[in-house]
Amino acid sequence: MTSNELRKRFLNFFASKGHEIVHSSPLLPANDPTLLFTNAGMVQFKDIFLGLDKRPYSRATTAQKCVRAGGKHNDLDTVGRTARHHTFFEMMGNFSFGDYFKKEAISYAWEFLTRVIELPPERLWITVYQDDDEAFELWQKVAGIPAERIVRMGEKDNFWAMGDTGPCGPCSEIIYDRGEEYSCENEPCGLGFCECDRWLEIWNLVFMQYERDEEGNLTPLPRPSIDTGLGLERVASILQGVDSNFDTDLLYPLIKNVEDISAKNYDRGEEGFPFRVIADHARSCTFLIADGVLPGNEGRSYVLRRILRRAARFGKAIGVDKPFLYRMVDKVVEIMGEAYPEIVEKKDYISKVIRQEEERFHETLHDGLKVLNSILERIEGEGKDTISGQEIFTLYDTYGFPVDLTEEIALEKGFKVDRDGFEEAMASQRERARSAREDTKAFEFALAFAEVLGDISATEFVGYSKLEGEATVLALVREGRKTSSLGEGEEGYVALDRTPCYAEGGGQVGDQGTLEWSNGKAEVLDTRRLPDGKIIHQVKIIEGILTDNEKVKVTVNRERRQATARNHTATHLLHKALKNVLGEHANQAGSLVTPERLRFDFTHFNALSDEELRQIEDEVNKQILAGLPIEAIETTLKEAKKMGATALFGEKYGDNVRVIKMGNYSMELCGGTHLKNTSEAGLFRLLSESGIGAGIRRLEAVTGAEAVSIVMDEHRQLNEVASILKVPPSQVVQRVQHLLQHNKEAEKEIARLNNKLAAYTADELLEKVQKVNDVPVLAAQVSINDTDALRELAERLRNKLGSGIVILGSNNNEKANFVAMVSKDVVKKGVHAGKLLKEIARIAAGGGGGRADMAQAGGKDPSKLQQALDYSLKVVAEQVEN
Fold first, then answer.
1. Which residues are registered as beta bridge partners of 124?
2. How far is CA 299 from CA 69, 307, 316, 605, in A?
3. What is the mean pLDDT of residues 146-150?
4. Does the structure show a pLDDT above 70 at 652?
5. Nearest to 230 by CA among 7, 74, 1, 48
6. CA-CA 20 to 30 A from 490: which of 52, 386, 604, 782?
7. For position 847, what pLDDT does the model report?
8. Does pLDDT of 651 surpass 50?
9. CA 226, CA 511: separation in Å to the nearest integer?
């Protein structure tokens, strides 16, 4: 049975049991900052299990794409060494949200395994939680499994929890016995005694039946739920009669692809390790990039870069010295494109991203070798024998230079490496990556209110068509607890049955406004939405007392809403203009829409040129001047996609969506507030363009009155500059260019005269050379303020001297500068520039230090400067003697 057929049979089987087939969610968990990647089928349903969200169905089934690389769940270093571990894999599952429970879950699993895909019942074993007598009995009663094939296990193996607190419960694993020929040498070899290749876990059934509090107490849930996960690759290996997941039709064609590229034959033993790593990583890279991740140095981007460069490095290990991984995207798409059409649509883009990163890696690998060699030369010159952990990490992090390669080269040349220091630097990097993830405040906010507000109904939003309306107070919250009233001066949160206030979402900030009632008034400071549709108003009571069930008049701040709408409409125009100017790959990767400005992040490989920025700004303003009508269309997600509407990556869409159409120019799925006509935006002005990560650019802009104000300021500044230069504004650029050219020529003349002076000075200084223990030493004070010029003079003197030491000192503003140069033959005698400088700086200012050839000390006392130079002769003598 092919993997595609297995996937279809699973989904269709559960659909026949009343389950909704839900498409796999992206690998970037939507609105879940606790996870790096989607790593299990239940992730997209997490809000339902936590009571934060409700769906129109109570049973669901999925085939979920997952990645386990980085963070708590990290299989990266195990990939290829075992038959089962992957960075990318598929988890099929069935879910019940307070519908059926253990009996049905066990019955469905048994029916699918033994009747639909016809696994031999006698090969199936079961594990249950040690105290779960109910599951132990149900497996015997429902599936007819004898008690001797049901093994009780402890909490570590058979009790699942979402976190330290929250939903949890016992689980039951279905194990496939591959036969005695796969037994290990342990005595006894059996389920519960060992984890050898004979016992293959294929399906885990989680019985979510408890709520765990902060003290660890378990309380039965009123509506127990089911969460299951079956490994597609593992079951495929059984059905296809192969020993390893890498021999299934999901991965073996990729290994054959590596054979073709490398002109090497695959070996299923240790020699084939690089082939398996590359096959696995080709899938991860393809799916991560399709889902919006780009290689970079933080968080998810850092993990992708590491996976991609690891594959490239293993390519080099089997003789492939040029970019190749991008060529494997076609094969991944051929195997998996039917189930995941998103990789078909983005195939060319994925290949381009991978190729660019591979080319960059090959360049940085070359650069890394040069940096490593310079590090080794330096530490040798300093008389050291160990590369520091920070230097190893810099090579690894900045240049992508493999740690084992650093270690190998260092050992070949007689140096040690500080592995412990490297691990400390890596731990710091992981901490930075964790802090770079999405802020958890919104998630915690939603969790807190889910508990406090309980089952009150979702809020009806009426703010698309009106900016004020009547509403009823459903709940009041102060300091995390429900309250019956809020008094004058107090701040809290209000849930209403309906509201015209737009809640923060889709990058747009929440509305502000007022609440008014018979004897009071409150200011609405912010508006936010919970995942289950409740809209929460953050308020401050201006006068009176607000109580439960109060009838209130809600009014939105009209000017603020209109300013926000101008910027939101402009983001849609900007998105389309970017695609027209740069190409279809320019997809939105994030946005912020406030009344004052807009920020727009998008995927693109290079910084934008001035001409591209001009074209983009001109096109947006052209559409504003065109006065395009803006239409909001309510429709189904399926119909919206048929219409050609752009769906933004990472956004969660329900079955019914809202489409914003701007003439025939732009059409996007969007729940935000917009203008009625593009002309209302007035003027669009770009403020800045920058990079915020590998492959991600950021534009900031303003519209309306803000844009006009900036244009007027720029006009005034231009007039001021023109006045200073004594030319009309139209000639400012020409005049500045003329001044720059004149300045450049003057700098050349100054440099020529300095070189002439330096040559004269060098000849004069060489007359002051004296010998210290037969070593020629020049220690002199010079009048050169520029540190680069001081260093150049020292190099000139050392070269003229041939063999010896040059030490120069000079005063630069409030600092005394020193430079030391030591010829190679004198270094061998034990004299090191770095040690010299430390001693000189200490004498000159009671401390100091610096780079190997340069030091600074506070103060500019000429006597101390000369004293330090005189002392340097003594230091040289001591170093030569020692």
1. 176
2. 11, 13, 26, 19
3. 93
4. no
5. 7
6. 52
7. 45
8. yes
9. 39
The DSSP-derived string for 231-290 is: EHHHHHHHHTT-SSGGGSTTTHHHHHHHHHHHT----SSGGGHHHHHHHHHHHHHHHHHH
Buried-exposed string 650-681: b where 16+ CB fall within 10 A, e elsewhere: ebeeeeebbbbbbeebbbbbbbbbbbebbebb
Structural tokens at position 560: 């603020």
Token code pair at residue 62:
């999925």
In our burial notation (b when 16+ CB lie closer than 10 A, e otherwise), range 774-810 reads ebbbbbbebebeeeebbbbbbebbbebbeebbbbbbb
Average pLDDT on 354-373 reads 84
Residues facing 812 on adjacent strands = 815
- Alpha carbons 378 and 383: distance in angstroms, whole number: 9
Query: To which H or E segment does residue 717 belong?
Result: helix 704-725
DSSP string, 304-363: HHHHHHHHHHHHHHTT--S--GGGGHHHHHHHHTTT-HHHHHTHHHHHHHHHHHHHHHHH
Which residue, 414, 334, 393, 324, is CA-closest to 361?
A: 324
Give me the pLDDT at residue 813, please: 61
- Of 94, 137, 143, the residue nearest 114 (C-alpha): 143
pTM of the full structure: 0.67
State whether residue 617 is helix, strand or coil.
Answer: helix
Q: pLDDT-based confidence at 436, cuts 50/70/90?
A: very low
Could you give the CA distance from residue 867 to residue 853 in angstroms, rounded to a whole number? 19
Do the beta carbons of residue 415 and residue 387 sit within 8 Å? yes
* Residue 620 parent element (H or E): helix 610-625
Phi, psi of 473 (to 5 degrees): -75, 120
117, two tokens: 């895909």
Strand partners for 130? none
Q: In 112-216, which ranges are continuous DSSP H helix?
A: 133-143, 155-158
Instruction: Pick the closest to residue 26 from 288, 353, 275 (CA basis).
Output: 288
Contacts 24+ apart (CB under 8 A), 364-367: 364/398, 364/399, 364/400, 364/401, 365/399, 365/400, 365/401, 367/399
The residue type of 54 is K
pLDDT of residue 613: 97
CA-based torsion, 341, 343, 347, 349: positive or negative: positive
pLDDT > 70: what percent of the chain?
Answer: 91
* Core vs surface per residue 125-154: b (16+ CB within 10 A) or e: bbbbbbebebbbebbeebbebeeebbbbbe
Gap between the Cα atoms of 222 and 116, Å rounded: 33
Consecutive H or E run containing 793: helix 787-801
At residue 845, what are phi and psi to the nearest 5 degrees? Answer: -145, 20
pLDDT tens, position by position, 594-636: 999 999 999 887 899 999 999 999 999 999 999 999 999 999 9
Tokens for 858, please give them.
């506070």
For the record, the structure tokens of 397 come out as: 């992090």
- What is the C-alpha separation between 398 and 155, in angstroms, rounded? 42
Element (H, E) at 220: strand 218-231
DSSP letter for each residue of 457-505: PPPEE-TTT-SEEEEEEEEEEETTEEESEE-TT-EEEEEESEESSPPBB
161, burial (CB in 10 Å: exposed 0-12, middle 13-18, buried 19+): middle
SS3 822: strand
Q: In which residue are the tokens 């936010």 written?
A: 528
Give residue for tokens 């490095």. 313
The H or E element containing residue 811 is: strand 805-812
Name the residue among 63, 67, 61 with its Cα closest to residue 86: 67
DSSP 8-class letter at 537? E
Alpha-carbon distance values, 131 to 158, 169, 172, 210 (Å): 10, 11, 12, 14
Kindly state the tokens that stand for 778.
């020049």
Place of tokens 């590998």: 694
Q: Say how many residues make up the chain.
A: 882
SS (H, E, C) 114-131: HHHCCCCHHHEEEEEECC
